[in-house]
Give the backbone structure.
Amino acid sequence: MSLKYVVLSLLNRQPQTGYEIVRSFDSSVGYFWQASHQQVYRELSTLADSKQVRFKEIKQTDKPNKKVYTISATGRQALQSWFESPIKDRPIRDPLLVKLLGMSVDNHCIMQEQLANRIRESQLLQATYQEIETLHYSADKRKHMPADALALYFALRRGLLSIEAELTWLSETYQGIETLFD
């Protein structure tokens, strides 16, 4: 998958400026797909060159002009074609697993430190996700949400469940190493 489809999906929801798209990566989208503002603007330029998005330039006083992007029919076709294609398995590339592979009697304490750090990071992210869920996705609110808002809720739930699984694995691994080298 590429950034192209994230940007097209955002624009398929509503017209947006590049700045608004970047802000999506700083909030909701950023929890499951990362991109820098340079990458987003470069992708918008590529999509405009390929006629998958259009933009209208809005003149502003005391500020640079802004561009409001909309998805074109060609962009909708590309998005639909991608949407219909099967999802390929995603490779797991976790440096922590590689370090675990290289663990030995000489470095198991460092491995445990790294596991403890990951546990703390995961707990902080879990708390953030839980706060978002509490603030924005109560059962009453979900009853009245449009499909695009519910899609973000489902992505959030996947994130929460993934973190729970990760925390379970991290804890088991930490304790297993402690038992092994005790």
User: Anything to note?
Assistant: Residues 3-84 form a domain with the Arc Repressor Mutant, subunit A fold (CATH 1.10.10.10). The two ends are 44 Å apart (CA to CA).
